[in-house]
Amino acid sequence: MQRDKFFKEIENLTHPNEKLIKTHCSYCGMQCGMNLRVNTMTNKIIGVEPRYDWPVTLGKMCPKGVTAYQQTNHSDRLLKPLIRDDASLKGTKEGFREASWDEAYDLIAKKFTELQKEYGKDSLSVFSGVSMTNEKCYLTGKFARVGLQTGYIDYNGRFCMSSAAGGFLRTFGVDRGSTVPWTDVHETDCLFIAGSNTAECHPTSMFRVWNVQERGGYIIVVDPRETPLARRADVHLDLKPGTDLAIANGILNLLIQNGYADEEFIKNHTNGFEETKELVKEFTPEYTSMITGVAPEKIIRAAEIYGKAPNAIVMFARGIEQQHKGVDNVSGYTNMALVTGKIGRPKSGVATFTGQGNGQGGREHGQKSDLLPGYRKITNPKHVEEVAKVWGIEPEEMPQPGVSAFEMFELMEQKTIRAMYLLCSNPAVSAPDLNFVRKAMKNLDFMVCADFYLSESAEFADVVLPTVTWSEDEGTVTNLEGRIIKINKAQDPIGESKPDWKIQVEIAERLGRGKYFSHLKTARDVADEFRLATKGGDADYYGATWEKIDKQDGVFWPCKDENDKGTPHMFLDKKFYHPDGKAKIFALPYRPPAEEPCEKYPLRLTTGRVVYHYLSGNQTRRIPFLQDMCPEPYVEVHPETAKIYNMEHEEVIRLFTRRGEGNYKVKITEAIRKDTVFVPYHFGHDQSINLLTIAALDPLSRMPEFKACAAQMEKIEVKEGVRK
Prior knowledge:
There is one protein chain. This protein starts with a helix and ends with a strand. Residues 719-724 have low confidence and may be disordered. The chain is 31% helix and 18% strand. The chain has a 7-stranded mixed sheet, with helices on both faces. A 6-stranded mixed sheet has the order 24-26-25-28-23-27. It contains 24 helices and 30 strands.
């Protein structure tokens, strides 16, 4: 209590011309609590302070969080609409001129109407993102299906969280990224963390992670790199990229064979155990080692630690999910929790580290090609009827499901999709096989991009609309626990920028669809309709009012009415969301990566984040401190591999795959496998590693295989002072 009082007093010590606005960080799914410092004379954000009262992070912030406020008044902000007059300059920053909103809207309405008249309603598409509030994500789905009347909508979470969603849905019947609140993490006895560089990607979680060991518990890490977390782990399973399912099956086999299965839980609360038990028998430690490259004794030890732990949480991230078998990987690791009965109680369960700020909420409310608000399915007539009633349309007016994100680019290349409305995403950097994706974007007849910076993707647009940053609007987001929280407005929009929801309302009005949108005058109006649209769905937010969120420090969904306080722990009653109330244990045959190394491409390429940057880097590469700390991408190479290739530390080399190439500075490190190279993905144009990645898609989630492909590298010859 004294500590809380002390920090409360610190937070109240503000300058006479300064006020603090309580809110949350704009970046990853931790959504760390912060106070934005606002000068009351200029009404401009001038700094940030941590919120020690926020129960998830308790005052912790990372380098991105402490500099996030610098986005808002940055000199690169777009302040007026831009129109490109020279289509031959698409893909560059050239050829734009400033325009009025009326001129921009008139052009958009004219082009969209002409294209739909000639090629049909589905000639238009919407590509969105989840670094927005729930309200904006919700309205984007409505804007596509009611405003534009197209079925082609998908979002950048397809490249981030879709495999976790697919795995949770088929295993539990519901997709919530964590079955326990984050305040349980440090109280468990074992953390089994697969495919997460937690110390760099979710650093404000680390005090809880380390506390597990400090209390006498254990940490097991699955990662091809010796990350900071892996270095301190009790067991580091240093597998070949793309072989996670073999590890999961191998651990599961040992849990069953060595008596750690909870037979009562399996019998009463699961289906599929016997088939799975039979399949994993072949995954002995030796066989698993042959596939993964992990020593058998490490696999045995990991299974023993997890099996004996009274409580344990299995956690994972993009390392296991961004694969063409990502859904199988997720189900494989959740099998461990189900077979041992370590789920549906405090301090035990499964959780995924959400990559984007609203990666959870943004996928629940209508931005995915087959989903409607509240996690309803667009293929379910009852679900369509429920949402159509809220939207004021007839059920038969609801467009049919579209396709996934990468498949939309394929349709653009084929001219099936003729136009794209892009917001809150930068696929010209973040999509796989970028040479193909950029060609597809250039092939569009018309493209609109809404952003607050001129991103690499905006360079392909015909019209660019200036939007606001997170601190210039308000609404809710859902963090990595499934906790709905409130983002508060700290300053008015600068220049002529507008919130995305307002832009969509105004475009819908220009297209003659205003009767479905014109009642939405404020962010609160959108919030009220959004909550109503989720009512009765699996992801039910109806009871999560802004007032309740403030009072409770967030509300865990589902929250069904005003008396419901929310659901911090999932499945406490051991009832899952499948019709029979049971979870499904899946028998999952091992499949190798889509591309295995060969004589021509002998290396395994994998990608990931660094602590100083976020996603495509469109925001963080503009912040001086963050850019100084990591100004360019690099390729991590093991010393013995570098010796074979005769490469030196910081030498610039050529890295290439079957799809593309890039020049990267070598970082020689023992913290990576000899057969693997790693490049961070936050950089644009010719520096983007996604020029090299493969678009092999998971059959269920349609997630591309960012984390494993075959690669080669070579020295760059220098002749007469010119690099060839």
